[in-house]
Amino acid sequence: MDGQGAVKYGRVPTRVLLCGEPDGWHYTVIDQHGGEERVSLGGPGARWQPPGRRPRDPEPPWWPRRLAETADALRDVVARALTDRTFLELGAEARISWFAVREPTSWEGLVTLGDPDPARFPGKVPPFSVTLEPGRGALLPDAHLLFSTLAADAWATLSAVAERCGTPAPKASFLCGWSGHRSVRVGRGELAVSVQREDDGTERIGEIHASRGEGWGGNPELRLRLDGIDLLDEPSGDVVALFRDLGHEVVARGRHGFRMPELNLLLYRSEPGAAGRADGGPDERFTGVSLSR
User: Fold this and answer.
1) Cα distances (angstroms) measured from residue 49 to each of 23, 44, 56, 224
2) Which of 83, 103, 139, 185 keeps 20 to 30 A from 129, CA to CA?
């Protein structure tokens, strides 16, 4: 069954299969009675598609690594989708233990159910609040990420955040224009820092970035605040109106977000605004914030 008309579980999921095929990826949920539901994940498939006119070009050396990274990200997507659905329909949390069937494109996960995450209920778990201070940096619950912070100290702070939130160690990645970039998960959000090399050779924070997708924010929920405004929790139209009321210049960046030049602040959405409107729909939220030096 394709996951368009979703099967309402009075059923309990017991296994999930993730598979990458030449034309795309999908996962299949198997319940305790052997019933199956297949859900397409969209996006490119698992076969190398050369960009030029030579369809028989061999796979480049980096392609297997790219497939492994794709599979890793999709396992996370599947786990989030399944546990959200299980909570809504059964009031329980689903946890998946993954095993490789054929790396990197075929995986099987065993599903166990547990008590719901306390953070799903308002007021049970305090959020992880980050306060942005334009021109200065960000204030965290137990530390600061200021633009004067050296790279080594910034990485240590992100490691402390990972330990506090019980998430994987910070992940380093290449980002064009920066000498270093690392990110850490906070609930279902992400807090990231980019550093730049100064004339004297030292590396200091140049940009602080945070994002959180739609839906439940995870445990703990990542919150971003500036001038008392909840940047990712208030409707995007209200956020823009509040900044304008405070006298800030707000410049639209197409349909995806807004820039405040004097604050060096960028607010954005993952998708264009509803019906092509720059300020989105009445319930639409921003999904990311960047504050630069």
Assistant:
1) 10, 9, 9, 40
2) 83
Q: What is the DSSP string of 177-232?
A: T-SEEEEEEETTEEEEEEEEE-TTS-EEEEEEEEEE-SS---SSPEEEEETTEETT
What strands, in cross-sheet order, belong to the sheet with 171-172?
171-172, 180-186, 189-197, 203-212, 288-292, 265-268, 257-260, 251-253
Tell me the pairing of strands 128-133 and 203-212: unpaired
The 10s digit of each residue's pLDDT in 88-129 is 999 999 999 999 999 999 999 999 999 999 999 988 999 999
Token readout for 156 is 């240590």
For residues 292 and 135, give the distance between their C-alpha atoms in angstroms, rounded to a whole number. Answer: 8
pTM value is: 0.84
Contact (Cβ atoms closer than 8 angstroms) between residue 265 and residue 134: yes
Name residue 207's amino acid.
E
Q: How far apart are CA 46 and CA 40, in angstroms?
A: 14
Is residue 195 within 8 A of residue 228, CB to CB? The reply is no
Name the nearest CA neighbour of 110 among 96, 93, 125, 129: 96
pLDDT by residue (tens digit) across 264-282?
999 998 753 333 344 455 6
